[in-house]
Amino acid sequence: MHLRIDGISKAWGTSTALDRVSFNAGASDFVCLLGPSGCGKTTLLRIVAGLTEPDAGSVHLGGRDITRLPARERGMGIVFQSYSLFPDLTAAANVGYPMRLRGVAVGTIATRSTELLAKVGLGGFGGRFPDELSGGQQQRVALARALAAEPALLLLDEPLSALDPAIRAQLRGEIRTLQRSLGIPTIMVTHDQDEALALADTIVCMRAGHIEQIGSPRDLYERPASRFVADFIGRANLLPTHFVREVMPGFLERRPPGADATWELCLRPEDIVVEAGPGGDAVVADVTFLGNLARARIDWRGQVLLAELPGRSMLAPGEPVAIGATRGAWVAA
Amino acid sequence: MNAIAAPRSAPRARIGAVLLLAVPCLGLLLLFLHPLFTVASRSLTDASGAFTLANYARLLDDPGLPRAALHSVTTGLVTTLATVLLGLALAMALHRSRLPGKALIRATLLLPMLAPSLVLGLGLVLLLGRNGLVHRLTGWPTDIYGFTGLVIANTLYGLPQVVLIVSAALARTPARHYDAAASMGATAWRQFLDVTLPRLRFALLAAAFLVFTETLTDFGSAVIVGGNYRVLAMEIYSEVVGQLDFAMGATLGMLLLLPAVLSVWLGRLARRRQDSGDASPGRALVPSRDTRRDLVLGAVALVALLPMLAVVGTVAYVSFVKLWPYQPSLTLANYTGLTEGFGPVWTSLTVSLVAAIAGTVLVFALCAGLRKAPPGLVRPLQFVASLPAAVPGMVIGLGYVLAFNHGPAAHWFHGSLLVIAACSLYHYHAQAFLTMQTGMRQVPDALDDAVAAFGGGTRAVLRDAVLPFAAPAAIATFFYLFMRSMVTLSGVIFLVTADLGLASVTVMRLDENGFLAQAAAYAMCVVLAGAIALGAMRLLLHILKERRHVA
């Protein structure tokens, strides 16, 4: 179902959590709300879920205004970061819970729960209690339970944040596969840019209660709309206009109009070309070897740049180098 | 699947949430605040109901009253000092020593929880009174009545609570602080001064204020071992029961309320500032080998705990003596041939059961209601719910008499079990509320939200999210209210009638009339009921933990 968020605002006392936020999500989209902590992404998710009431604005699902509808009448499935399973119920009973609330027949609940647990790779674990499951398994149960609600919309509130990195990566892949195969529109809150890049069809990048940019992961990485997005997603070298005019004036042609101070050039570390040679006007400050690649900090006329090179490149600190760039994007400072 | 049934309507859930808060609030208003204000207004009005300060002026006319106030404060201060020092040593013995037999120390500390100050006072009299066991055995002229007896009885009563508070603070001090101090060359004594003590500051303060309040408002030991050393609680009792001067009783009650409120308020401040400790406790602390420290702590533990055992042991022994102190042969007659029968014990059990059930339900509803209440409402309600901690039992009891013995419902209220149960419940409301609130804080917000998101209303949230986590707290609340209601004397002393005896009151009456062996037998019944309740509570909590997978 199509989700439309329109001019949502929310304040907690005097501090603004959301300021007139709007966006749309398509019928089977995976949308990530991405931003640093305190940017309002969780508040926005809770408003969509009906757990928090907005001060202004509206939420439409499938053309129906659900802004004032209480959470329990919205029919959404939700997975929280942690501690959301009933500790005194087995995995199967947890999964069956939404159906029990709706008065589904006991036999149907049992079959459905077994099915759903198998779907998240936990066939045979139905009799376990949450404290007998690992963190990753608990989140799988929570996911199965969210699906048991036959949700019109699946909401994931940092579902992977409390897990170990290895399990996080694995479960991330499984969530994506599952969501694709079921075609349920999904909104996930995360502060982890890697997660957002890997999972989302659309990323909504938020900052301090408003949306900085909406777009595909590739859009946000290659054409960040603001200094904040450039900095938050991936690594960025941000160069002021006057410096660019001095060292690589070719980029100036594509700069949108405006005062110098309002624009900066964003160069991704992998787009910087480094050539060793006595004629170079830059100097290698230090090199960090990371296996498949090496990250070098380079002093170029008083500006320190971060460059990523193949791990085999033999740069040494103090070595003179020449700098170029294959591509760059102008961002609002 | 087309299993999505029509959801229940939202307004009904709202009504449920409102009721959740409204019923317990009504209880607090009618059965706590109303009696309390009645006492206050009675102290400020004359016979015709006009405002006057004459009652307070009268306080100074009788030289006995200022003296009683002085006695109360002196007893309170000395008891507080003794209890806090001994309690600190006992907590150190439990958590920072290698003493053997810690389980024994813990078990002994349970005694005062089962035996109210009344029983401790009785034991002291039987042991060290003019005709006490020690005098019988040695011929020494012992006389425990008065200041010393009060201090000992109240100290024994307060010790377990101080040990509990200090122990909790000790458990929050991580081992690595001691490792750090030791690696910099601090001796054990320096570590105590520099690591242990600073972290205990607020716990000690909170404990001190608690003991001071309890001693000041204690009636049980005052009536048994106070003798001619009159304290305020005794004066209130004499004014009301002896001279039927309710106005003076109310005025003295207000006098007692003042320091109690102040003390509880300061104790709260201290507790709020308490160091919450490190988030990660890290390595468990293993006390180093230190014979001298262990000897000293062991000696203090003996000094503190032997009297406790001796006092309760004496009551147990005397309860089997034929005619104390004249015929020392042993008999069961004190139990089988009770003059008043077991009636008062059953009455006490009934009252306690009613108070415990009603109290647990009301406090559960209040805490559950507060979770979703508007922020502006939470603070004032928390204050009122905790206020009973500062109100002496006698003041509440007096308030009940003044508020309910006249007026429309007087006939129904007079001598009713329910009134006594209500009085006990609201007397101990603060601690019950605190326990329940702590339990409810365990409920993860995510669980709450999950129930709501999957279509559950207020009832489903309570049943599926709140109850599993709050059940241990509810059980603890139930037994706390039950045990306290069983033993309380100060709250109910004005409410009992000729037909409606309570076990604790009967102990007092038998003692007053010199039937000491029978008083002891009655006291043991009370202690036994408490012990059974405590055992049942531990068992239930254990089973719950095994079965429900909730820590």
Automatic annotation (TrEMBL), chain A:
InterPro entries membership: AAA+_ATPase, ABC_SmlMolc_Importer, ABC_transporter-like_ATP-bd, ABC_transporter-like_CS, Mo/tungstate-bd_C_term_dom, P-loop_NTPase, Transp-assoc_OB_typ2
CC per GO annotation: ATP-binding cassette (ABC) transporter complex
UniProt signal peptide: none
Example GO BP: quaternary ammonium group transport
A GO term for molecular function: ATP binding
Pfam families (UniProt xref): ABC_tran, TOBE_2
This protein's UniProt keywords: ATP-binding, Nucleotide-binding, Transport
ABC transporter domain segment(s): 3-233
PANTHER family named among the record's database cross-references: SPERMIDINE/PUTRESCINE IMPORT ATP-BINDING PROTEIN POTA (PTHR42781), SPERMIDINE_PUTRESCINE IMPORT ATP-BINDING PROTEIN POTA (PTHR42781:SF4)
Protein name: ABC transporter
Taxonomic source organism: Luteibacter yeojuensis
TrEMBL record, chain B:
Membrane topology: Multi-pass membrane protein
Source organism of this protein record: Luteibacter yeojuensis
Gene Ontology biological process terms from the UniProt entry: transmembrane transport
SUPFAM superfamilies, per database record: MetI-like
Transmembrane segments: 69-91, 103-127, 147-171, 202-226, 246-266, 295-320, 345-369, 381-403, 487-507, 519-541
The protein's name in its UniProt record: ABC transporter permease
Localization annotation: Cell membrane
Family: Belongs to the binding-protein-dependent transport system permease family.
Main localization of the protein described in the UniProt heading: membrane
InterPro entries for the chain: MetI-like, MetI-like_sf
GO cellular component, one term: plasma membrane
Secretion signal, residue range per the UniProt entry: none
Ranges in coiled-coil conformation: none
Domain ABC transmembrane type-1 residues, every copy: 69-267, 345-545
Keywords assigned by UniProt, alphabetized: Membrane, Transmembrane, Transmembrane helix, Transport
